[in-house]
Structures are given as structure tokens and as C-alpha cells.
Amino acid sequence: MPSLPQNVKKPTESRHFFCPKSSFPPRLEDSPCPLSSSIYGHITHNSLTPISVARLSPAGATAMSSFRAAVFLLLLAVASAHDYHDALRKSILFFEGQRSGKLPPDQRVKWRRDSALRDGSTVGRDLTGGYYDAGDNIKFGFPMAFTTTLLSWSIIDFGRTMGPELKNAVKAVRWATDYLLKVTVDPGVVYVQVGDAFSDHNCWERPEDMDTLRTVYKIDRDHPGSDVAGETAAALAAASIVFRSRDPSYSALLLNRAVRVFEFADTHRGAYSSSLHAAVCPFYCDVNGYQDELLWGAAWLHKASRRRVYREYIIKNEVVLHAGDTINEFGWDNKHAGINEVLMGRADYFENFKQNADGFICSLLPGISHPQVQYSPGGLIFKAGGSNMQHVTSLSFLLVAYSNYLSHSNKAVPCGSHSASPALLRQLAKRQVDYILGDNPLRMSYMVGYGERYPQRIHHRGSSLPSVKAHPARIHCKEGSLYFLTPNPNPNRLVGAVVGGPNVTDAFPDSRPYFQESEPTTYINAPLVGLLSYFSAHS
């Protein structure tokens, strides 16, 4: 989770702030770089899938022309041949650098060591394991569960093209689900966070040295959290599909636990950010409400169990739980667009959800996109707020997932007078992936360890501090500030980490204090795993 050690101010300038070349002088207030007007340099013309057009009025023809131009400009790309399988391997390896608990003998990120081995001891439970969500040392249950759901979905839809990396992807899911089973072991209770975020963010120290408060936070009948419980149920249900043929008994355990956790979430409704506001806000405060997580959980239970009760639940609660709201959002806080796509291909029961899914696709198309969805001059999807790459990877994942549904059903998406084919959706998603891997104005990869140029100073405690092997002595809380502020590159490469990414002008500060741009998260990588798997076989 984005964080600065207390009493350390964000610098107003950075000697490592990369700006795209520009001939246009105006600046955005929050950027030290000018807006770009000409940023592509060497350009190749990609062939575009034809967009079917009905008879248009002059105004419609103008709009169509604008739409065509926007799509055409977006898909212009730097001529690069990417090794998607190498990027896939690294994107999965990243999760091993985020592990908490006792590391296994086959741990591949060697600069990490065991950490947080007493988690849960204050409440008499073993809550070791799981993942640190980002560059800090907290285990936040809400984004961890979403990460697990998206990793599982990546395997369900795209595992067949992962090759030898499939086994590592499955291990990444199991590291998460083993922990989710621990936090849901008590009926009517979900342990949703381990670690006091304010205490943690006051220090810059390795997880192996961690001596900050490891407070355990839970939801129960008197302190509901339908949002985090609904997402946890979704994660367990999705993972049960992953293990259905690989480990049937483990799969059954996951599904049965998902059923129980969902029943708890639905029976005791409420937002965890209300019950635990002081602990989870402003870090992972659910500002979007818990209703979408209930539908999301039911959608995954329907997919995993094939039980009619969940189909009836979705249909019955479609209006009550606001299924059609904010369809252009998808991430750890908002599942609306994802709900629609999970339900595709399920006969005609969910026709309204198909309409919502079509509306979501139209909201992303350049030239007619929703006001909340922008494209940078270099062609990157941009949404206001921090850690923009989370939107890039999750929305692109849905583009590819929906394109597969459309291909199988021989359909296209109607967007008023326009129509978007499955091939166009895949091209738009590929453009985003290629941008991440280096086809951008700065000619740099935003994945650590991929390509010749990538972020060197990511906002990540374990990566930026000397490893235990290199520096066996403890590095105490405030002693780490020296490493936080140094302009030197991080000593430990967190291979596969994808950072928050550039701002709306395509400028990027390779600097730890700029956490919104330089911090990696698990929920950036989780959908990217699926995307890279797909494009490794379809490029």
C-alpha cells in the first residue's frame, strides 16, 4: 500500500524524473514534465480490424471519423518484438518476493528470508503466510483476496498457454489460499488484516526485521464486512476451480469454505470500512460499497459450484445490489465490470449483465470512452488516483476475456453507431501490455528486470534495503530512512514487479518517494499474468 515513512516529505523534484520528448510547452500542475504533442518517434502502422458502421447522419459521420482516428492513433506502436513468455515468467516470480511467513525450500527469490512468523499469536491463531500487498509489510485481506481471484481467473482462462510457468502460477494461488483458509477457520469470523498500518508506515525496514505492531483485525457478526468477506468467498471459489482436477480434496475444501464465508457476508451485511474504519482507512477503504462484492462472490460460486441457488440469488438481487452501477470500474474496490464478464456464456439468464458488459467495453473505446477513462498522449489507459497500472492491467484483462466470449459466440459489441470486434478488443489490450513492456514515449519497461531499461528505485522496503545475507545485522525502524532517501538504485531486484507507472503526460519519476508511480502491487500483476499468457501464444 502506498506509504511514506512519517516525517519524510515527498520531494518537489527528482533527479530521476523521466519526461517524454515534447515540442509543446504547457505543463500539468502535478507534473514536472510538459504535455507531449509528438511522442511516438519511430512508428509502424498496425492493421486495424474494420469497424462496422450503420448509415450515419453528417454528425454521426463526424463522430465515426473521430472514433476511427482515435482508435488508429492509439494502436500506432513502436516497432518492438516482445518476449511475452519471459515477461510471464517474471510476473509470476514477483509473487515469491511478496511472500510472508516461512519460505519453502524451492523459494526462488533468494534475497528474501522468513518473516512475520508470529502473526496471529495475539489472538491464538496461526495467521502466518499470505502476501504483503505492495511495498510495505502489512497483510491487507481485501486486496489479497482480489489478487487471488484474478490469479485464479488468469489460470482458468489462460492457463493452457502458460507452458512450464503454469505450475508456478498454481503455487502462487496456493500460497494465497492456504492463508485465506487460515483467516476463515472460525465460523462467523474473518481475520482481514495483520499489522498496524500506521505503525508500519512510520518505519522503513525489511520484513525480516519487522518489529512494528502486528495487530490482528477481524470482522464478525457484530462488526460486519460484506465487502472483504464477499471477495474472500470469490477468491476461494475461483481457486477451487483451479484445483478441481489438480487436487480434488483441496478444491472441495476451498469451495465449502467459500460457501460458508459467502453466507456470513450476505447474512451480516455491512462495509468493513465502517466496522474497522480506523484500521483500514485510508489504505484500503471500500468507498464503493459492499453490494458489488456480494454479487461478485455469488457469480464465482455459481461458476464454481453450478448450483442454481446462486443463479437465483444473482437474478433476485440484481437491482437491489446495483448490478448496473459504475460499469467502467474494475479493481480491488469495484467489481461491477468483472461480474458481468464472469457471467457471460451462462445461457440467457443474465441478459442484463451482457448489456452491462457491452456498456463497459464501449466506455473504454478511445474516441467515445467514458469521461473517467482517459488515454495518455502515449496511449496508456489512465484513471485518476494512484497506482494507475492497476487499472491498465485489470481493464485490459477484461478486454481479452470478453473478446474470447465474443469470438466463441460470433458476436461484436454494439456501441451506438459503432461496433467493436473481438480482434479490436484484443488489439487494444495488447497495446496496453506493450506499453508496459517498453513501447512507450520513454522507451522503458515498467516491469523490473524486463528489457534493457526499467525502474531502479521502486518504493519497496525489502527491495531497497540490503538483504539479510548482505547485511546480517538488524536495520531498525528509522535507520532505514537512509536507504529510502538515497538516489542509488535498489540493491535487490524484485524481478517481475510492475510499478504504478507514469502520469497522464507519460512522465515517470524513478524515485521511491513518488509512491503512486514507483510502488508495485500484487493486484497489478495478477491480471497481467493472464494477459501475458494469452499474448505469449497469440502475438
What can you tell me about this protein's structure?
By secondary structure, the chain is mainly alpha-helical. The chain is built from 19 helices and 9 strands. The strands form 4 sheets. The protein has a 3-stranded antiparallel β-sheet. Strands 1-9 form a two-stranded antiparallel ribbon. It has a two-stranded antiparallel sheet with strand order 5-6. The two termini are 33 Å apart.
Strand order of the largest sheet: 2-3-4
Helix content: 40-55%
Order of helices and strands: EHHEHHEHEHHHHHHHHEEHEEHHHEHH
From the alpha carbons, calculate the radius of gyration and give it in angstroms: 22 Å
- Tell me the number of strands: 9
**Ends distance:** 33 Å
Shape: globular
Name the poorly predicted regions.
Answer: 7-15, 22-32, 34-65
Query: Total helix count?
Result: 19
Mean pLDDT: 86
Q: Into which percentage range does the β-strand content fall?
A: under 5%
Secondary-structure content class:
mainly alpha
Main beta sheet, described? 3 strands, antiparallel
Catalytic activity: Endohydrolysis of (1->4)-beta-D-glucosidic linkages in cellulose, lichenin and cereal beta-D-glucans
Keywords: Carbohydrate metabolism, Cellulose degradation, Glycosidase, Hydrolase, Polysaccharide degradation
InterPro entries: 6-hairpin_glycosidase_sf, 6hp_glycosidase-like_sf, Glyco_hydro_9, Glyco_hydro_9_Asp/Glu_AS, Glyco_hydro_9_His_AS
GO molecular function: cellulase activity
Quick gist of this model?
The protein has helices at residues 58-75, 84-97, 141-158, 166-183, 197-201, 226-242, 248-267, 272-275, 277-280, 291-305, 308-317, 336-342, 351-364, 389-409, 422-437, 461-464, 481-485, 515-518, 522-537; strands at 17-18, 139-140, 190-194, 216-219, 374-375, 381-382, 413-415, 418-420, 508-509. It is mainly alpha-helical and 539 residues long.
